[in-house]
Amino acid sequence: MTARTARPLPRNGAPVPPQTPAVGAALAANDGPGALALYQQVKDFISRKIQDGSWPAGTRLPSEHALVAQFGMSRMTVNRALRELAGQGRVVRVPGVGSFVAEDKPQSTLLQIANLADDVHLRGHDYACKVLLVERVSASMETAALFGLRTGESVFRAVCVHLENGLPVQLEDRFVNPRVSPDFIHQDFSRQQPSEYLVRTAPYDEMEHVVDAVMPTAEQALQLAMPTAEPCLLLTRRTWMQGVPVTFARFLHPASRYRLGSRFRTDGNAR
């Protein structure tokens, strides 16, 4: 009996696509004046594999080194192709692990406070929350003004990373008014989301959402397992209960892994 070597599997069990040296030769021959840029040829090849279902969501792409050997191109050329595919949301690049065919981006509504864990579970995926800190801090001048407090008064702060199938999709940095939610600091947010707890114990009747496109800091990129050169979507949220500020939160999402959107009727009901 001839021994067979198993192909490596990524976390979700999808096989690594086989390498085909003939493809590299075919692309290398297409170098006439009207030929596509080399990086675009690599992009198109990978995109076709994704589009026709040869490489389904979660499939690990060949490494940059393997693609260089396969296509006979420079590593810089291959890197640009992968970088642009990641920017378009077709590929997810995890530093130190590899590049994977992206799932359809999860979408969060702009007009409601969605339960991220429920959304992840509805997609049949695993949700987890990594709590980085929950503490009492002295309010800066800016934070104090948001809550109608004096500078230096105590507020609660929580920082969490939310993960879908082990991949970070959201970095949450939240401040909470202790006068409205005095027990917030004692909660275990690895078991329930901060927003879930606040909606239940300090239900809002007014909310503000602002969305910005930003670049992550080096620390934020590390926490989200993403390149520092990739843009992010920043959702800033403020809520009030009977006119009293409850929370001020910033939610940072890698743009290639997340999208924001809403649909609403003129009767005011968002969905």
Q: What is the name of the CATH class of the largest domain? A: Alpha Beta
Structural class: alpha+beta
Q: Which whole number gives the mean pLDDT? A: 81
Q: Please describe the biggest sheet, giving its number of strands, its sense, and whether it closes into a barrel.
A: 6 strands, antiparallel
Radius of gyration over C-alpha positions, nearest whole angstrom: 23 Å
Q: What amount of the residues lies in strands?
A: 25-35%
Strand order in the sheet with the most strands:
4-5-6-9-8-7
Please state the second-level CATH architecture of the largest domain.
3-Layer(aba) Sandwich
* Strand element count: 10
Report the order of strands and helices: HHHHEEEHEHEEHEHEEE
- Classify the helix fraction into a percent range: 25-40%
Question: How many distinct domains?
Answer: 2
What distance lies between the first and last C-alpha atoms, to the nearest angstrom? Answer: 59 Å
CATH topology of the largest domain: Chorismate lyase
Number of helices: 8
CATH homologous superfamily (4th level) name of the largest domain: Chorismate lyase-like
Uncertain spans: 1-35
Overall 3D shape: elongated
GO molecular function, one term: DNA binding
InterPro entries: Bact_HTH_transcr_reg, Chorismate_lyase_/UTRA_dom_sf, His_ut_repres, Tscrpt_reg_HTH_GntR, UTRA, WH-like_DNA-bd_sf, WH_DNA-bd_sf
GO biological process, one term: L-histidine metabolic process
Keywords: DNA-binding, Transcription, Transcription regulation
